[in-house]
Design a protein that fits this description.
The complex is a heterodimer. By secondary structure, chain A is mainly α. Chain A has 12 helices and 4 strands; from the N terminus they run H-H-E-H-E-E-E-H-H-H-H-H-H-H-H-H. The chains are: A mainly alpha, B mainly beta.
């Protein structure tokens, strides 16, 4: 209900133009822009605004958690994540990978290419294949725009209105944007994304690991490990881990994916990740 | 008294007029670029993509973004047909048809924008001519076979630069290297049994082979002006200057006569080389485009080509000095040679105009259609205005249509271009002085694809 009110507020706000409206420089002979070009124009605008939106969520995460300043491990995580994103992420998005200092076992896709993993998660990872699985899972959330869709911002009519609000913002709109960021932050850190979104991302993860050459079963092993650690819950933001594992196992069987196939890179992981 | 046996051979020789090389009297034979081709080449006032680098470089400053484009004829078919040609040694008339087919990648362009400048590099094939014919006539007492093959293609490649003075005026320059390469092979064979006794009385074999090479430059200057919103005018000026050319032709023939003591038997071989440059008309183009909505656009072009004199590669008639002109009364080879030498070796091209109309409409943001109509008139002189031995005089019209599928990063276009024209093959005779006209038709269709 509150989200609906916020969206309504946005639409209403931008329908009343203010002096603060930013006029974008006109392209030469704009009348030449054909209908097909408007696809690109809209997509670009939407992406730009999604990045701004994601940056807002990221700032909230960084407000809650400290960012790990370890060059060696940051570079390593960045390389693994960038490699996966280059092949399976959105081409137009520049991905950023950060490590949050927290004992929680969690990872976040803050939208717009901002991906975070906690030190708590890194501690229970056994190898590079599992790390790649966690990052691929978050990249899938980003690629599928789960958080954006969960906020119902991807409806064509409301999306255009709301996203354009980012560019012509007045003070009230900024406040509303801040609230939307807060809702997204709460979804990521407390409520969690819908179960279907998690399953989608899980399946994407298995397929990604398989294509890259990592052992897909390693990701299921990681989920199993989280179950074994009773003190540290995997996270309340994820659906029943048992159910996820069950579905993934069914998928692996249906696709006849061998347990022994694919690399783990345990030594390299151990070399770089020392927490 | 006419030497009947000689006449037989020679008449057969020229049964099919041998237009030596491609079509230098039409200037809109090939459309290229997906969007431009779909609109019948009506692009002078549009030109805001890589294809525009050639149509009118000035328009490229308004290109939406950097792009790489390519287009090609997935299938291209040409047909050339002459009616009412008298058959050898017969009162009957017939027709002959030459056809050509090809798959041709005829355009590639790269466009880059840099502030107020845009620069491009394009490669394109503005004209290609492909004619093939195999003719076999067997009328009991005489046989005739012809195998004719011609391929003639012109290429252009080079950069263009455009600059916008303001939001409403831009200019562009292009310099394109011109290269033309063509060749033909023609063999003819005839036998005749005069007295129908089953024994061959005369026979003749002729072989002709020719090549054409041209090097030069096409200079192009373009301007676009947007005086009021949604309307653009475009202007272009260009000319191809041939810097270097070489036409070569080799002919040989043998003829045997077994029944007449004064009949001709023997052979000949002749090689010709011509380095004189062909002249190409100056082209002025004007276009207007109207963009009422993002989903609709209308365009109109008019092209003017100046008159000029162009040499006829290899000259006329077909190199064999003993050839007697068709339908003429020549009593000796000496007379024939005199006539031969008197033929005009140049063709005075008339000034001519082409018109084209284009329409582009979007079904939605992902799908659009374009249509075009265009003329491709000849600059060949009317009958009686030239003493060139023979030439085509035919005005063509064309229709085009294309479908485009758009994604945020690319456009795929496929379409069809149809052309058709009817006119005359004009043959000038000297003895007696008269002009013959034979109904002539040309047609072509091309299925093209393009990506941008």
């Amino acid at each position: 209900m509150s989200k609906t009110l916020l969206i309504f507020f946005f639409v209403f706000s931008i329908s009343v133009k203010t002096d603060a409206e930013v006029v974008k420089p006109q392209k030469k002979q704009n009348f030449r822009i054909r209908l097909n070009n408007s696809i690109t124009e809209n997509d670009t605008k939407l992406l730009e605004n999604e990045i701004v939106f994601g940056r807002g969520i990221a700032s909230k995460l960084l407000g809650k958690y400290e960012l790990l300043k370890d060059k060696k491990i940051n570079n390593y995580i960045g390389k693994i994540g960038t490699g996966i994103a280059a092949q399976f992420g959105r081409k137009q998005v520049k991905y950023f990978f950060g490590i949050l200092v927290s004992e929680e076992i969690n990872a976040f896709a803050a939208s717009g290419g901002y991906i975070f993993i906690t030190t708590g998660t890194l501690k229970i990872l056994e190898n590079e294949a599992q790390l790649a699985g966690v990052l691929a899972h978050e990249i899938s959330h980003d690629k599928r725009k789960h958080i954006v869709e969960n906020l119902n911002l991807n409806d064509i009519s409301s999306e255009q209105n709301i996203y354009s609000a980012f560019n012509i913002l007045g003070g009230a709109v900024r406040t509303a944007l801040e609230k939307l960021n807060l809702i997204a932050f709460q979804i990521l850190t407390e409520q969690g994304l819908p179960e279907n979104d998690e399953y989608e991302a899980d399946i994407d993860t298995i397929q990604t690991l398989q294509k890259i050459g990592y052992n897909p079963h390693s990701y299921v092993k990681f989920l199993n490990n989280t179950l074994l650690i009773s003190k540290r819950k995997f996270s309340s933001t994820h659906p029943s881990t048992e159910l996820r594992i069950q579905k993934l196992n069914e998928f692996l069987v249906s696709k006849k994916i061998s347990k022994d196939k694919g690399k783990l890179n345990t030594d390299r992981f151990g070399f770089y990740v020392e927490i | 008294m006419l030497k009947y046996n000689l006449l037989i051979i020679l008449k057969i020789l020229i049964f099919l007029p041998q237009v030596v090389f491609g079509d230098d009297t039409h200037y809109k034979d090939m459309l290229f670029g997906g969007r431009a081709a779909g609109m019948g080449g009506t692009y002078i006032a549009i030109s805001d993509d890589a294809a525009g680098c050639f149509y009118n470089p000035a328009g490229t400053v308004y290109a939406y973004e950097d792009s790489i484009s390519g287009s090609g004829n997935a299938f291209f078919s040409q047909k050339y047909n002459i009616e009412d040609i008298p058959k050898p040694l017969s009162e009957e008339t017939g027709s002959y048809e030459r056809v050509g087919e090809s798959f041709l990648a005829n355009f590639f362009g790269i466009l880059r924008k840099h502030d107020d400048f845009t620069y491009c590099f394009v490669y394109l094939i503005p004209e290609t001519n492909s004619e093939h014919q195999f003719l076999s006539i067997n009328e009991n007492v005489w046989q005739y076979e012809l195998d004719w093959n011609l391929e003639d293609t012109s290429y252009l490649a080079g950069p263009s630069l455009a600059y916008s003075f303001s939001d409403s005026i831009s200019w562009g320059l292009g310099l394109f290297y011109h290269y033309r390469s063509g060749r033909f092979n023609n063999t003819e064979h005839t036998n005749y049994d005069f007295d129908s006794d089953g024994i061959q009385d005369t026979s003749a074999n002729f072989f002709h082979r020719g090549e054409i090479k041209e090097h030069g430059f096409l200079y192009k200057l373009g301007l676009q002006w947007n005086p009021v919103d949604e309307i653009v005018f475009g202007f272009v000026f260009d000319q191809t200057v041939i810097q270097n050319s070489l036409y070569t032709k080799v002919s040989s023939g043998t003829a045997y006569n077994w029944i007449y003591s004064d009949g001709y038997s023997g052979g000949y071989q002749l090689a010709l080389e011509n380095k004189s440059h062909r002249s190409v008309p100056i082209h002025y183009g004007f276009g207007a485009a109207y963009y009422p909505t993002p989903s609709t656009m209308y365009a109109f072009d008019i092209d003017y080509y100046s008159s000029t004199s162009t040499n006829i590669p290899f000259g006329f008639p077909n190199n064999n000095y003993t050839v007697i002109l068709p339908f003429s009364q020549v009593e000796s080879a000496e007379t024939a040679e005199v006539i031969n030498n008197s033929f005009s070796q140049t063709l005075r091209l008339s000034e001519t105009y082409n018109y084209s109309l284009g329409l582009e409409t979007y079904i939605n943001a992902e799908n659009s259609l374009s249509f075009g109509f265009f003329s491709n008139n000849t600059s060949a002189p009317d009958a009686g205005e030239s003493t060139a031995y023979y030439y085509d005089h035919i005005d063509m019209i064309g229709l085009s249509g294309a479908y485009s599928s758009h994604t945020p990063n690319s456009t795929f276009t496929t379409g069809l271009v149809l052309t058709k024209g009817e006119g005359n093959l004009i043959v000038n005779h000297f003895l007696p002085r008269k002009i013959n006209k034979f109904p002539l038709s040309r047609s072509s269709w091309a299925l093209f694809i393009a990506v941008n």
